[in-house]
Amino acid sequence: MGLVFDAATRKSVSKQMIALPLQNNAIDSMLDSINEEKAVNDNIDGGNDVFYENYAGLVSNNEIERSLKDGVLAGTFVEADIENAIDRADPNLFYPVAPATPNPDYVPFICPEVNGGNATTAASYEYNAGPPAKGVLLCNEATSSPAGNGIENLSTVIQTGFAHAGAATTLTGNYLVGNTTITTVAALTLGQYVLVAGSGHSMLCVVLSVVGGFTYNIYVVCESTGTIVAGGAVSHSWTGFTEPERTSLTATVPTYQDLMGALTTVGLNSLVERVNTWEVVIAAQRVQLVANDDPNHTVEVTAEIASIDVLKIALDNWLALVGGAKFSNVNLASLSLLSSNRRAANPARIAETITALGGVTRTGVNTYAPTGVVDDLYYQRYVYLDVRINMVFGSLRKSRNANKGTANLTYTKGNNTFLESEYAGALATSKISANADGSVRIALEDATQFLIADNVYVLSESVAEIAATIQNKSGNVLTLNVSIPGTMTVRDLTRVVKEL
Fold first, then answer.
1. pLDDT digits (tens, 9 = 90+) for 193-203
2. Would you call 162 helix, strand, or coil by DSSP?
3. Who contacts 243 (Cβ-Cβ below 8 Å, separation ≥6)?
4. What is the 8-class DSSP label of residue 184?
5. How far is CA 27 from CA 31, 41, 119, 408, 424, in A?
6. Which of 174, 378, 161, 189 is nearest to 260 (CA)?
7. Do 249 and 260 touch, CB atoms closer than 8 A?
8. Cβ(203)–Cβ(193) under 8 Å?
9. Region of residue 216 (phi > 0: left; psi between -120 and 50: alpha; otherwise: beta)
10. How far is the C-alpha of 452 from the C-alpha of 323, rounded, in Å?
């Protein structure tokens, strides 16, 4: 260590050499005690965690199933929020947000308002009770304004077209495949279908907003396979395809063949791909339902699984129809009916998931209650969050604190051991085993490192240091060249030190 020893340094270091092993012994005892208590507490927390994970899983099942129906992604916490809550780390002192006027006496660090509401919207889902979105709905949407691209809409468009307010006009610039805007000679009606055709190609879009002048942002429902040059016709009305055209998958007017393919079998917005995606979404719902073993809602869950199974068989049968047979009047009507029936049934199932999830709210300082019944999933999940995290005696909080305590003590012990090793290379130190008696003889606890002719120092906490030379040695008793006063006692931590 490069220590330069003077009286003060010898006194300090030698005292530490005596104290450090005692500290480490105490640390070992504390670690044993902590580990024993931690083992008991971990068993308790393991039991609490089983219940928490059960309710957290049921919450997730219901939240994910709902998001696949109406796109609502619940704003719920993740494991990192729980860890932050245990560590009391901002900004997660309260979940989902700190109250506007937090009660200073309120202890919990994850508060009861754990059902965070609609955080965002899923990218792909089945049902929307409001106006139809563009490109995300699978089987919703009536044919009224604003125009959409759900299964019922597309089924209607392919058979009878559409007729919206707005005068026919033409493109003033080329439409290129992948464009998200068009520019026309005259104004277009927002929120409605527009058919663009020319140069042997056709494209169906929904007019979203005005960019400026007669340039509009659009959502492309059915993409063209090539450029439609300036002068191409732009219309708010179209009569659809006849049944022979649909069943043969061939447009009588070649310019509309792009539209035929895009409405039937080609691209993400075609009816075939819409049905394929619909099957994927209801299959994902079924996975959540099968995993949902909530004993309080078995009847509803079982009924929804059965409903999905019946729907899948019907959709499989429609997809199995060969070629254009899918698009006959009868088969399109059957598909639209599946969609409308599902649309009508979905709100009830969404309401069931909302009821099952329930809610939890604060009722006072450190008290909370379900917004519905005690079996509500949000409430039950919070019960186990509360007993694991929020309370000073919370099982997960105690386990985390024990881990931190163990880590700190282990670090301290390691540092002590390092210092012991460093000091042992610089000094030899031993406490006396009996009080000095005023003679030249002094008894040590361990005289192994002390030899005849060694220069040593006799130190205590209240008597000045005495320099001496060892004249003789018998076991652990040294004979020095100077007498040691009786004021140097065991109680005063008298020790003999030799520089190495």
1. 899 999 999 99
2. strand
3. 159, 328, 329
4. B
5. 6, 20, 48, 10, 20
6. 161
7. yes
8. no
9. beta
10. 109
Here the tokens at position 16 are: 């530490």
Q: Which of 68, 62, 64, 70 is nearest to 127 (CA)?
A: 70
Q: What's the half-sphere exposure (Cβ side, CA atoms, 13 Å) at 439?
A: 9
Do 442 and 458 touch, CB atoms closer than 8 A?
yes
Q: Catalogue all structural domains in the chain, each as residue range(s) with its CATH number.
A: 10-115+359-399 (no CATH), 151-264 (2.40.10.170), 426-499 (2.40.30)
Q: Give the pair of three-digit tokens for residue 37.
A: 């208590």
Instruction: Show the DSSP H helices in 321-434 as ranges.
Output: 329-357, 377-385, 395-424
CA 115/CA 120 separation, integer angstroms: 14
Q: What is the pTM of this model?
A: 0.73
> Nearest to residue 409, comparing CAs of 32, 155, 106?
32
Structure tokens at 317: 């049968």
Q: Cα torsion at 333, 336, 342, 344 (round to 10°)?
A: -90
Per the structure block, which two tokens stand in for 104? 């200073």
Give pLDDT tens digits for 259-288. 999 999 988 788 998 899 889 889 999 999
